[in-house]
Amino acid sequence: LQLIHELGQALGRREFVLHYQPKFEAGSGVLAGAEALLRWNHPERGLLAPADFIDLAERTGLILQIGEWVLDEACRQLRAWREQGRPPLAVAVNLSALQFSHPELVATVGRALRAHDVPPEQLILEITESTAMQDVEASHAVLEALSALGVRLSIDDFGTGYSSLLYLKRLPANELKIDRGFVSELARGSEDAAIVSAIVALGDALELTVVGEGVETRAQLEVLSELGCDALQGYLLGRPVPVEEFRFDGSAEC
Ligand code: G
Ligand code: G
Ligand code: MN
Ligand code: NA
To answer: What range(s) does the EAL domain occupy (predicted)?
Structure first.
């Protein structure tokens, strides 16, 4: 209960912060983007990860205001990087189910882009496969509207949500992120490898970028590359870090 109260005050007290995790092109190791990940700098408990408060934020509806802050902050950062002369990078923001089903989402995204004069193609919105599949017709309309704004769309945690392929074909998405669950024990010739291959083939057929995430070992990286993933993300290549520590130079060893 105390935490609900504190969560309600956290925005006004500027206790939220975004960390950024790099994403790299497989093969070349060129930096391909960053994922913005929310952290709560709690005055007594220290830095809290979403696992500690996102459910609460979702249940209380506070996620709507928090999510609006996340979108605005990511766009503000994109502009700051541009003004520092950084090369244009795409930044991905995660959307929760409640945000995704909220009628104001498209307006909120448009407002954040305009407020910071951000080219829409530099913003990627990640929704999980299960969120996208909750109400297929409604999701389709929202994704079409977001796509019309010019932002890019990524289906997160892919492989866990029972997508109908017919539906997936109609979605205006740009990217599939293979769920970490298929990567954690990935080995050549394994069942997970067959699943990754199938997702890569699906991505190729639908012209979607396929991202392997949760890459923690050299072996996982090699198998994901061999199987044809387009991009890679994970602790091996770069952890989520505060913006001051985010590196634009140097490519990862992909
Ligand atoms: O950063 P971390 O690995 O702890 O994130 C855990 C979960 O929280 C992930 O599923 C991630 O997508 C989610 N998450 C991270 N940042 C945000 C955010 O800004 N908004 C929402 N809705 N979820 C987030
Ligand atoms: O659900 P989503 O894919 O948005 O989750 C992103 C979360 O995954 C972030 O909280 C991030 O901290 C975490 N993450 C990123 N890379 C790795 C990794 O290599 N291993 C593990 N276990 N978690 C990771
Ligand atoms: Mn994500
Ligand atoms: Na994911």
So the answer is: 1-254
* C-alpha distances out from residue 165 to 35, 103, 117, 147, 154, Å: 26, 26, 36, 20, 16
Over the stretch 145-156, which tens digit does the pLDDT of each residue have? Answer: 999 999 999 999
Using CA atoms, how far residue 127 sits from 2, 73, 97, 156, 229, in Å, is 29, 18, 8, 6, 19
Q: What are the chain's domains?
A: 2-245 (3.20.20.450)
Number of alpha helices (DSSP H) and beta strands (DSSP E) in the chain: 10, 10
Ligand 1 center to 27 CA (angstroms): 27
Residue 38 sits at φ, ψ, to 5 deg, of: -75, 140
pTM above 0.80, yes or no: yes
Q: How far is the CA of 89 from the centre of ligand 1 (A)?
A: 20
Q: How far is CA 88 from CA 14, 77, 119, 211, in A?
A: 27, 11, 10, 20
Kindly provide the ipTM of the predicted complex, given to two decimals: 0.97
Protein residue whose Cα sits closest to atom 19 of ligand 1: 38
